[in-house]
Amino acid sequence: MKRLAKGRLLFMLAVTTLFLAGCGEPFISTLQPAGEVAQTQYDLMLLSTFIMVGVIIVVTVIFLIVLFKFRRKDDKIPKQVEGSHKLEIIWTVIPILLLLVLAVPTVAATFDLADVSPMEEKNEEGKTDVTVVNVKANLYWWEFEYPNQGIVTSQELVVPTDEKVYFNLLSTDVKHSFWIPAAGGKLDTNTENTNKFWLEFNSEKADEVGNIFYGKCAELCGPSHALMDFKVKAISKDDFNAWAEDLASMEEAAQPETASAEQGQEIFNQSCIGCHAVTPTGANAVGPNLTTFGDRTHIAGYLEHTEENLKAWIKDPEEFKPGNKMTDQYGNLSDEEIDALTDYLMGLKVED
Amino acid sequence: MSTYAQKKGVGAVLWDYLTTVDHKKIAILYLIAGGFFFLVGGLEAMFIRIQLAVPGNDFVSAGVYNEILTMHGTTMIFLAAMPLIFAFMNAVMPLQIGARDVAFPFLNSLGFWLFFFGGVFLNLSWFLGGAPDAGWTSYASLSLASEGHGIDFYVLGLQISGAGTLIGGINFLVTIINMRAPGMTYMRMPLFTWTTFVTSALILFAFPPLTVALFLMLFDRLFGGNFFNPDMGGNTIIWEHLFWIFGHPEVYILVLPAFGIFSEIFAIFSRKRLFGYSSMVFATVLIGFLGFMVWAHHMFTTGLGPIANAIFSVATMAIAVPTGIKIFNWLFTMWGGSIKFTTPMLYAIAFIPTFTMGGVTGVMLASAAQDYQFHDSYFVVAHFHYVIVGGVVFALLGGLHLYWPKMFGTMLNEALGKITFWLFLIGFHLTFFIQHFLGLMGMPRRIFTFNSGQGFDMANMVSTVGAFFMAVATIVLLINIVMTIAKNEKVGGDPWGDGRTLEWALPSPPPFYNFKQLPLVRGLDAFWIEKMEGNKEMTPAEPIGDIHMPNNSFVPFVISLGLFIAAFGAMYHNEHSWGIPVLIIGMLVVFGSMFFRSVKDDHGYHIHKEELMDDDKGGKA
């Protein structure tokens, strides 16, 4: 009898897991955890779901019995029952026990996920031994600074897999919230204090999604809140180091390779460079760093990475991200100028 | 009283309602105003669902969408759910405790008009340059950055209507403490009265933090304050704390009276006294108390640190215990009973599984480590709609059918009522169940659009279809109300046949003085006790005597109007020179009418006992 119950439980567990895993896309779903944090949270979800489904089943059974058994059949007045101490104690004590079962792992996980002590330990060079990213949230884009590597990128977060990555989160304007659902829960980017947490990205899961996870802003921040997406490129530690070294060694902007791109560079240097850097330094910029623009997978964080989209975006950013800070900052550019600019921007690459 | 009203012209009826201090008429005012705002909030909800039906939709623009979502939340909480609950509290609670009115009839009227003018002010933002757009939570950094006057409408409108709510809460507290009929001890009070009592206490402690928060925001936005400006040493997290110290108890302010209404419905239509009455009372008080200890669970991702998160996590889970006690007590009230499936009872029955769902997702949200995933995702949207629609709105709809005869003397059509119920129930689960999964699949809340290819398309479409079911249900309800008013078939004092508490011992609607003689209460379910002993009426606790009644007054309307005018002055004083004068004029109207009220003695009037005797001979109305 006991074994049967256990078998049934395992079966239910398997079915639920399968069912939930069918939910959503692996690059964005919390139900297909791609790292230690998301896995911890997913396990807690499963545990609480099982407890709660148990509660719901008990309630439903009593509920159905009541509905079928105690319909009004005649005009008799039923016995007026005051209550039952025994029953009342039962349904006070059992829920308390169930909640304890959930509370203990919850508290343990809460402390575990908040443990950022390794990022506080500095070595002789004043750097940390772990990967640290300083995230700055802006209306409506993200800046990622790697203090150990001395580089800055934006919109696409590059992280090494299979190790804890530590984040310092801060906002430069209004409150946002930093969320990579597949990798783990969110943390707000406040305007007055730096929040810290860590995430981990599993290399196998990263392979499954072509190394790209989706990130979101989860706190209402204005008209284009819905479009404040970013992408996470999770690559192996070696690839990450190579990428970071490539970027760090760049002392001047990538040189244009075609005549049109050269023309684009001139326009860029007149109209854009005030806000957008094309070398991987200078944190706290006004606009997103474009050093690796050609390597990105998306334009403005959410549009497909095509020349047409880039041209349309430069022509009228307001149409895509209402309330953004780029609109009207660079005068009117002619179509030729935009074409040239596009050639130039698409050529900004460090990867091959 | 309605017979008198029919003889009067429209103007006279209107004047009567503008000046009334009768709790039953104020209840009707709350019902009409709250019902109107419910429809407005519902319309906003439909716009939200239409916009999100398909990916990349452009039914409304991003900015307008934010205004709609803000106004949907704000309207539904402050201008629909609260006043509708106040409608039933006003209509029923004084009758349930055997009182002739509330303790302060004048304040009762003032509370209503403040709410009403605050609500109108807030909604005028649609026509005066744009509604607030920072969410109903209006977090400080965003709301200070918000352009235009939307947030000012939010701050001033809620300040005015919040004052009305606070006044109402204090009034109910005093009424329940002081005005119970002879024999109506605390432990004989019907559960709806108990929940009104606890809710009023919550209002007393929860609204002042909101008032403070709104004042700070007001000064930041309009008078150069820097309370929430980090560059000047301010702090935006303070707003989050103040808002949620109010905001979490607010949830219980809404849901406890809903529990009260359901407790009445279960007992009436099961023909059984409430199972475990004293543990129900205890659980209500405990929920109210714990409700103040858990606000930071709305801020798990703010970065308060693991110690605060763990404490608030466990404290929040503890609330599940008294709530569970209630669910089982309701089930066992029906157990062994004789259940009649009327429309109110259908809502109560549907409430149990629906609210249990909302409760268990609440426990999941309480668990801080998981909440980092749920927070600000559609999972939360699903959760609070299960609680607020499945708990509060079901109670309001059930309560509307249950108390309609007591308030108006006619019965809503049962067949149409059941059609509304089924459409609403199906639509509700269709809309919101799938939103749990949308959240888990990574969809943040408060987004005006989404790209396809993220797995959100189908579920959003299903959700929108469900919303239309609820819209149709609401239309059927409106038809039902219009038909019932047109038919005007009067019913007796106990139209459901199984009334247990004092309000059912009175005619429907009750005479304006409620009880000719205050009733003697001999136990819980006082009217039921008399019925079981073969009595048709309550045993009186006093001989027939003169009844002291308050005079009608137009002053509450004028005070509220003054604040309404002053609010416009405050809002525009930075850009128009007439701002400050209008502010001063408005405040003069307020203080002038207060002064008038203070110096002019108004002793009310007496209904003489001969008139009461005559009423008897003239046949019972």
TrEMBL record, chain A:
<dbReference type="Pfam" id="PF00116">
    <property type="entry name" value="COX2"/>
</dbReference>
<dbReference type="InterPro" id="IPR001505">
    <property type="entry name" value="Copper_CuA"/>
</dbReference>
<keyword id="KW-0472">Membrane</keyword>
<dbReference type="Pfam" id="PF02790">
    <property type="entry name" value="COX2_TM"/>
</dbReference>
<comment type="function">
    <text>Subunits I and II form the functional core of the enzyme complex. Electrons originating in cytochrome c are transferred via heme a and Cu(A) to the binuclear center formed by heme a3 and Cu(B).</text>
</comment>
<dbReference type="InterPro" id="IPR036257">
    <property type="entry name" value="Cyt_c_oxidase_su2_TM_sf"/>
</dbReference>
<keyword id="KW-1133">Transmembrane helix</keyword>
<dbReference type="InterPro" id="IPR036909">
    <property type="entry name" value="Cyt_c-like_dom_sf"/>
</dbReference>
<dbReference type="InterPro" id="IPR014222">
    <property type="entry name" value="Cyt_c_oxidase_su2"/>
</dbReference>
<dbReference type="InterPro" id="IPR008972">
    <property type="entry name" value="Cupredoxin"/>
</dbReference>
<protein>
    <recommendedName>
        <fullName>Cytochrome c oxidase subunit 2</fullName>
        <ecNumber>7.1.1.9</ecNumber>
    </recommendedName>
</protein>
<keyword id="KW-0679">Respiratory chain</keyword>
<dbReference type="InterPro" id="IPR045187">
    <property type="entry name" value="CcO_II"/>
</dbReference>
<feature type="domain" description="Cytochrome c">
    <location>
        <begin position="259"/>
        <end position="349"/>
    </location>
</feature>
<feature type="domain" description="Cytochrome oxidase subunit II transmembrane region profile">
    <location>
        <begin position="22"/>
        <end position="117"/>
    </location>
</feature>
<feature type="domain" description="Cytochrome oxidase subunit II copper A binding">
    <location>
        <begin position="128"/>
        <end position="246"/>
    </location>
</feature>
<keyword id="KW-0349">Heme</keyword>
<dbReference type="Pfam" id="PF00034">
    <property type="entry name" value="Cytochrom_C"/>
</dbReference>
<comment type="similarity">
    <text>Belongs to the cytochrome c oxidase subunit 2 family.</text>
</comment>
<dbReference type="InterPro" id="IPR002429">
    <property type="entry name" value="CcO_II-like_C"/>
</dbReference>
<keyword id="KW-0186">Copper</keyword>
<dbReference type="InterPro" id="IPR011759">
    <property type="entry name" value="Cyt_c_oxidase_su2_TM_dom"/>
</dbReference>
Automatic annotation (TrEMBL), chain B:
<feature type="transmembrane region" description="Helical">
    <location>
        <begin position="27"/>
        <end position="48"/>
    </location>
</feature>
<comment type="function">
    <text>Cytochrome c oxidase is the component of the respiratory chain that catalyzes the reduction of oxygen to water. Subunits 1-3 form the functional core of the enzyme complex. CO I is the catalytic subunit of the enzyme. Electrons originating in cytochrome c are transferred via the copper A center of subunit 2 and heme A of subunit 1 to the bimetallic center formed by heme A3 and copper B.</text>
</comment>
<keyword id="KW-0472">Membrane</keyword>
<keyword id="KW-0812">Transmembrane</keyword>
<feature type="transmembrane region" description="Helical">
    <location>
        <begin position="378"/>
        <end position="404"/>
    </location>
</feature>
<protein>
    <recommendedName>
        <fullName>Cytochrome c oxidase subunit 1</fullName>
        <ecNumber>7.1.1.9</ecNumber>
    </recommendedName>
</protein>
<keyword id="KW-1003">Cell membrane</keyword>
<keyword id="KW-0679">Respiratory chain</keyword>
<feature type="transmembrane region" description="Helical">
    <location>
        <begin position="554"/>
        <end position="572"/>
    </location>
</feature>
<keyword id="KW-1278">Translocase</keyword>
<feature type="domain" description="Cytochrome oxidase subunit I profile">
    <location>
        <begin position="9"/>
        <end position="522"/>
    </location>
</feature>
<feature type="transmembrane region" description="Helical">
    <location>
        <begin position="110"/>
        <end position="131"/>
    </location>
</feature>
<feature type="transmembrane region" description="Helical">
    <location>
        <begin position="238"/>
        <end position="262"/>
    </location>
</feature>
<feature type="transmembrane region" description="Helical">
    <location>
        <begin position="307"/>
        <end position="332"/>
    </location>
</feature>
<keyword id="KW-0813">Transport</keyword>
<keyword id="KW-0186">Copper</keyword>
<feature type="transmembrane region" description="Helical">
    <location>
        <begin position="151"/>
        <end position="179"/>
    </location>
</feature>
<comment type="pathway">
    <text>Energy metabolism; oxidative phosphorylation.</text>
</comment>
<keyword id="KW-1133">Transmembrane helix</keyword>
<feature type="transmembrane region" description="Helical">
    <location>
        <begin position="274"/>
        <end position="295"/>
    </location>
</feature>
<dbReference type="InterPro" id="IPR023616">
    <property type="entry name" value="Cyt_c_oxase-like_su1_dom"/>
</dbReference>
<feature type="transmembrane region" description="Helical">
    <location>
        <begin position="191"/>
        <end position="218"/>
    </location>
</feature>
